[in-house]
Design a protein that fits this description.
The protein is α/β, with parallel strands linked by helices and 204 residues long. Helix content is 31%, strand content 13%.
Length: 204
């Protein structure tokens, strides 16, 4: 999902997918939301973008939502080998969702500031697994500019779905301090004074 990008993100994604060794056995769809909204200064509604992506994938697959697992990650995240496998192992226990953690792309792999201690765990759309029928039952992510991950987890719990906290195949994410989602992780890092080699680098 290229959400209102003002650069060549979608083209790069399509080229990378076409040239990937797994291109013959993995279906890739690159969606674009109107970049004119960025030029017009309209704030991103990332929750609506994630919901559109999820619904598009499910229509394309045509599989049983009760046995389909949706994985959410951000474009600036990388996952360790086994990430999908670990999510699916928890999905097989009947979970409605898995809320995994992230580590910052900094020396020492620190966790973002302000995370709750165990046994509570943070919620990040950059490491979130959702059973498709649960996703559909709560109408996807709330249409907000940030906090959509917390929003859908709250919806799932309110509907009686089991959300498993944990950090399967922890995702490494950018420590940038400039992002488009107001109130998101980039703002948190800037406000807490985190320092990184990419600090201040904008994201288009």
């Amino acid at each position: 999902m290229a959400d209102r990008c003002s650069d060549a993100t979608a083209a790069h994604a399509r080229a990378a997918a076409a040239g990937h060794p797994a291109a013959r056995r993995v279906r890739v769809t690159v969606l674009e939301r109107d970049p004119q909204a960025v030029r017009d200064g309209l704030p991103p509604v990332v929750g609506a973008a994630r919901t559109l992506a999820g619904r598009t994938v499910l229509r394309s697959l045509g599989t049983d939502p009760a046995t389909t697992w949706l994985l959410s990650i951000d474009a600036d995240g990388t996952v360790a080998p086994g990430w999908v496998r670990e999510h699916l192992a928890i999905a097989d226990t009947g979970a409605g969702a898995v809320a995994g953690g992230v580590v910052l792309d900094l020396p020492g792999s620190p966790r973002p500031p302000g995370e709750p201690p165990a046994p509570d765990h943070p919620v990040y759309a950059a490491n979130l697994g959702l059973r498709a029928d649960a996703f559909l039952a709560v109408a996807g992510f709330p249409a907000v500019g940030s906090g959509e991950d917390h929003g859908i987890v709250a919806r799932l719990r309110a509907h009686g779905f089991r959300v498993v906290p944990g950090a399967p195949g922890t995702v490494r994410t950018s420590a940038r301090e400039r992002g488009r989602a107001r109130g998101g992780l980039a703002d948190l890092l800037r406000d807490t004074g985190s320092e990184s080699p990419g600090a201040g680098r904008p994201v288009a």
